[in-house]
User: Which sequence fits this backbone?
C-alpha cells in the first residue's frame, strides 16, 4: 500500500494488506516500410488487490479485494512519414482487458466473476503529431 492508501486524511486504511501477484507478459514488434505494428499479451493473478471504492455514504476508501485475475492484449500501429520537412506520426491503439474478481469476502460475494470498476474492457486511442 502507498502512504495515501494507508494514511489519507479521513479515508486511509491502516489495515490494508500488501498486494502479491504472479504475472507474465509477451509481445512482438514488426516494421514494414514506414509502419510499425506491435502486439502484447499480459496475465496477472493478484492477491489483496487494493482498490478505492465508495463506502455506504459515498466516501472513497481503499480496501483489499482477496483475488483478482487481470488479463488481456493490446494492438498498436504507428505510421511515420515526412511531409516537406515535417515528420508526421499517426498511431492507433486498441486494448482489451478483463480484470475480474476471483475471490471476495462473504459480504462482497456478488462481485465474484464481475469486471472491476474503473477498468474498461475495451479502450481505443488515436494520436497524430
Assistant:
Amino acid at each position: 500500500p502507498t502512504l495515501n492508501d494507508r494514511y489519507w486524511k479521513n479515508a486511509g486504511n491502516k489495515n490494508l494488506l500488501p498486494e502479491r501477484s504472479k504475472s507474465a507478459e509477451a509481445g512482438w514488434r514488426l516494421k514494414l516500410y514506414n509502419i510499425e505494428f506491435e502486439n502484447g499479451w499480459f496475465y496477472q493473478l493478484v492477491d489483496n488487490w487494493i482498490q478505492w471504492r465508495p463506502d455506504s455514504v459515498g466516501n472513497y476508501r481503499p480496501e483489499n479485494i482477496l483475488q483478482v485475475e487481470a488479463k488481456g492484449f493490446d494492438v498498436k500501429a504507428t505510421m511515420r512519414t515526412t511531409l516537406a520537412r515535417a515528420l508526421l506520426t499517426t498511431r492507433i491503439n486498441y486494448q482489451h482487458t478483463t480484470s475480474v474478481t476471483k475471490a471476495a469476502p462473504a459480504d462482497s460475494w456478488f462481485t465474484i466473476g464481475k469486471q472491476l470498476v474503473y477498468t474498461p474492457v475495451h479502450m481505443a486511442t488515436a494520436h497524430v503529431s
